[in-house]
Structures are given as structure tokens and as C-alpha cells.
Amino acid sequence: MPSFDIVSELDEHEVTNAVDQASREVGTRFDFKGTDAKFELKELQITLTAQADFQLKQMLDILRLRLSKRGIDVVCMKIDDPVVSGANKATQSVTLRQGIDSELGKKIQRLVKDSKIKVQAALQDEQVRVTGKSRDDLQSIMAIIRRANLDLPFQFKNFRD
User: Fold this and answer.
1) Which of 55, 91, 95, 148 is the 20 to 30 A CA-CA neighbour of 5?
2) In 10 A of CB 158, how many CB atoms?
């Protein structure tokens, strides 16, 4: 039976490259000269540090641009509120989300079931496996998932005929 997997994955190497490029750009920009503005990446958690809140906004724009140019969908970013301390220091955390949790997996299963197409969706770890009798049905499900606004970028992998 034909099947495919719905996953949400990030290429961590590309994330590292994007953060490095953003750091280099902040280091060379005139409006950041003499400041200790920097990006720190630890396991898909990016910490932005600057002297003021408006600089964090500029750094966030730079980060979005660099991530999108490296092929990473910026929808996966979960941006926390900036924390401004009194000593000319502002920090902000950005978490890059990946994987399908059980709640989102259930939403995807509900979408598949509500489509009335004769396929089955099963949640397996951090992915959803969709199986059906026809390749056309599976492609219809792919189109439905792409159109659905589920707040996370999805990839379709392991398509078996």
C-alpha cells in the first residue's frame, strides 16, 4: 500500500550557518559598532543580546532574513518577549521548533479524517504516517496539509508506492 510520512524537521547545519552569517552581519554593521550585540546558538535555542530593545528588533529581522535565505521556514520560530535589564543589556530568546507533538499529530489526523478521503493517518513518534490505496489520494492529502494553517512547516518524506 502506498504511504508517506509527514514530518517537521530542521537542518541544524543550515541553522548554524544562518546564525553565523547573522553574527557576521551584526559585527560589520555601522549601527552595531561598539556594542556587544551577539547571537548564541545552543541546540536550536538562539539567544540575542544587545544594548537596547530596538537593536533586538533589528537583530531579529537579520536572523529571519538569514534563516529564510538558507531554506529554513521562519514559521518554526517561537519568539519570546525581550528582557531588558537596567545595565544597558537586553536579551531575547528564539526557539526553533521541530517535530510533531501529540496534539498537533491529532490535529493532522482530524484533518485527514474530515477530508473523507479513504486513507489512514497514524501518529508515530514525531511524525504522522499516512497510508492509502491510491497514490492520488495521498497527493490530495498532501495538498490539504499544505493549505492548512498549522503553525509549523511540514515536509513529506518516505513516499512509498
Assistant:
1) 95
2) 11
How far from each other are the two terminal CA atoms of the chain, in whole angstroms?
A: 7
Query: Does 114 lie in the same domain as 87?
Result: no
Mean pLDDT of the chain: 89
Candidates 131, 76, 137; CA nearest to 104 is 76
Residues 105 and 88 in one domain: no
Give the model's pLDDT for residue 22: 93
What is the per-residue pLDDT across 116-145, written as a single tens digit (0 to 9) for each?
Answer: 989 988 888 888 899 988 888 889 989 998
**Are residues 144 and 69 part of one domain?**
no
Hey, is 20 helix, strand or coil? helix
34 backbone dihedrals φ, ψ, rounded to 5°: 80, 0
Record the pTM.
0.83
CA distances to 16, 19, 28, 91, 121 from 40, in Å = 10, 8, 17, 11, 38
At 148, is the secondary structure helix, strand, or coil? coil
d(CA 17, CA 20): 5
**Same domain (yes/no): 103, 58:** no
CB 127, CB 5: distance < 8 Å: yes
Residue pLDDT, tens place only, 83-104:
988 778 899 999 999 888 888 8
The SS3 of residue 134 is coil
User: 58 is in which domain, residue-wise?
Assistant: 12-96
